């Protein structure tokens, strides 16, 4: 059995990568077993390794200064918090004082009740057969719906009552009852 005999260049590349991986693995294991002493900052500066980065950061050294500033600490301790007395954990709403107007106010307008949307259905006929409940015929822009009392038409209107002159529908979305008269035509 010959492994990789067909393609010699792949075998050579794989063996080189395997040897390189073993060398790197050995170095990492030996560095974990025998840790080296860290060099001092002065040694790095002498080597010039991080000298250029220190020159860039020299302008912002006060922001990175870890020293405790006692003067700023005592200044912050001396500040007394004076809130407005509002409890952020309570449910009460603070009462705002509104200045009174000197002129009399106009009487409040009655609340405007929006008119319910118009029903686009037309009641154009019904049929009653013995032994069966009455069925009505409704149309909406060319679509014809046939239903009986209690059914839902056009996925929106429930048929409440059927009479020979009108049909009463309940709009299930707007919760409004409508009476549609029988249209002669």
Commentary on this structure:
- The chain has 185 residues and is of the alpha+beta class.
- The chain has four helices and seven strands, in the order H-H-H-H-E-E-E-E-E-E-E.
- The strands form two sheets. It has a four-stranded antiparallel β-sheet with strand order 4-5-6-7, with no helix packed on it.
- The chain is flat and about 100 Å long.
- The mean pLDDT is 78.
Task: Looking at this protein, list some descriptive labels.
185 residues, alpha+beta, four-stranded antiparallel sheet, three-stranded antiparallel sheet, 21% strand, flat
Q: Major β-sheet, in short?
A: 4 strands, antiparallel
- Strand fraction equals 15-25%
Give the low-confidence spans: none
CA-to-CA gap between the ends?
96 Å
Helix content: 25-40%
Main sheet: which strands, in order across?
4-5-6-7
Architecture blueprint of SSEs:
Blueprint: H1 8-33, H2 41-47, H3 51-57, H4 70-77, E1 122-127, E2 135-140, E3 143-148, E4 152-153, E5 157-162, E6 166-171, E7 176-181
Antiparallel strand pairs: 1-2, 2-3, 4-5, 5-6, 6-7
